[in-house]
Design brief:
The protein has about 550 residues and is an alpha/beta fold. It folds into 3 domains: about 350 residues, Rossmann fold (3-Layer(aba) Sandwich), CATH 3.40.50; about 70 residues, Luciferase, domain 3; about 100 residues, GMP Synthetase, Chain A, domain 3 (2-Layer Sandwich), CATH 3.30.300. The chain is about 30% helix and about 25% strand. The protein contains 16 helices and 27 strands. A 9-stranded mixed sheet has the order 2-1-11-10-12-13-14-15-16, sandwiched between helices. Strands 4-3-5-6-7 form a 5-stranded parallel sheet. Strands 17, 18, 20, 21 and 22 form a 5-stranded antiparallel sheet that branches. The termini are far apart.
Amino acid sequence: MTIIDLLEQNAKNAGGEVALVEFNPNLRSRKEDWKEFNLIEGGTDAKLRKELTWGEFDSKANRVANYLISLGVKKGDKVAILLMNCLEWLPIYFGVLKSGALAVPMNYRYTAKEIEYCLDLSDSQYLIFGQEFVSRIEEILPSIGSIKLLYCSSGLRDTIPEFAADLLEMMDFASSLKPAVSSSLSEDDFAAIYFSSGTTGFPKAILHKHRSLINSCRTEQAHHGQQKDDVFICIPPLYHTGAKMHWFGSLISCSRAVLLRGVTPEWIIRTAALEHASIVWLLVPWAQDILDAIDRGDIDLDEYDLSSWRLMHIGAQPVPPSLIRRWKEHFPSHQYDTNYGLSESIGPGCVHLGVENIDHVGAIGKAGYLWETRICDENGSDVERGKVGELWVKGPGVMTCYYKNPEATAEVLHGEWLATGDMAREDEQGFIYLVDRKKDVIITGGENLYPVQIEDYLRGHDAIKDVAVIGLPDKRLGEIAAAIIEVKPGKTLTEEELNEFCQGMPRYKRPRRFIFAEVPRNPTGKIEKPLLRERYCGERLVETQTKS
């Protein structure tokens, strides 16, 4: 079985039921506009809200597949997708799979040169792109001339660039019947190429089989128990494995999902209420913003019916325990889970906390459904329980390889085991705690510092919105820990106050330098530490002295 079979089952058994909703608050920003848009009383507004049934979803995917086949797409070809979240995204993705080709989702933040690099690295012969990327594609046209360009207009027919074909118009002439090639696909066929997030360098291409995709459906449902009446709010970008593989829980349970194109606290809460959401996946910054908005009085929870909301879960980065304690104060009935995964392990789920283990907040959990874990030393041997080592995982979602990069593949794949690059420890009860990225460890005066531990401590200060700790070069100590501090709006904070606050940490762990600035995060919520190192490592260092 493949995920294509799941879509076709849903179309057959629940073809008239809503599968996807696109909610785009960016089209209206004024709060008073909500008076005209009352879903609870049955109001509609095509500009803000669009929906797609399972039958329409499958039909559109078939049309995409048949159009691609008419262009000459063959089994094993690569079709890149460069789109913002929209109602067309998933039907296009499934259409690529149904054509027998490999889907190659691309980060919408890529520069023109990064797009060119990833198209070349993945051997993509086709590129489906949206309006937001026209100027970037124009910039690299001379060097990607052999790639067939398909424009997804999303109804904006008057903006079609001359150098591309209109995908949606061409689909109208394609058959809505299932293409024959999709019936021959199995779990052992290649399905997709994803790109690493680039937080530790330039993206690598990650090759996955259909087996990875179908098993991520099973793992996600096993963890979060999606049923047909669940409603999932999906906010993160669909090009990333995390967002899509959490949505796979909706696919396998034939339940509705809402693609929310906006991340302001008010819109998240309003959409959850209007759509009667039961599951919302957040990133750490969004959860923090919601809590801050509630504390400021910008959001009054008494104005919203959130009685359907049963689960809030977070992934993609370490979660401060203080954040979940605050969340439970405002949402005491919510279940909570955190999920750990990598694009190399097809996104979330290889490790998860479990809703029954909220008393272990701070841990990423235990091996997920169908997964195994180890904590290893530099030689690949298991470390003593409680000691820090590298987290290794094994399961049905481990990548086949880094595409066209056997050297990088050999560094992380050891038989069936994937070395994650994350340093972790396991407690006596078997719960795993992330310590830090292997490449982010700071060595100062011979001592290993793990930035995540320092960041968690600093987030306990009520004036800090976000924090990132990096190592900066130092002539005497080799490296020192520097903390980039993003202060909450309306709050003030000084170095003296931070030094005083850090007295609760062992002296060697205290940051030697504080930098007050915005903390950059990528679309999946991960801190962009290479950018911070590039920005600050070249500066002349002046140590911030900590008190004894």
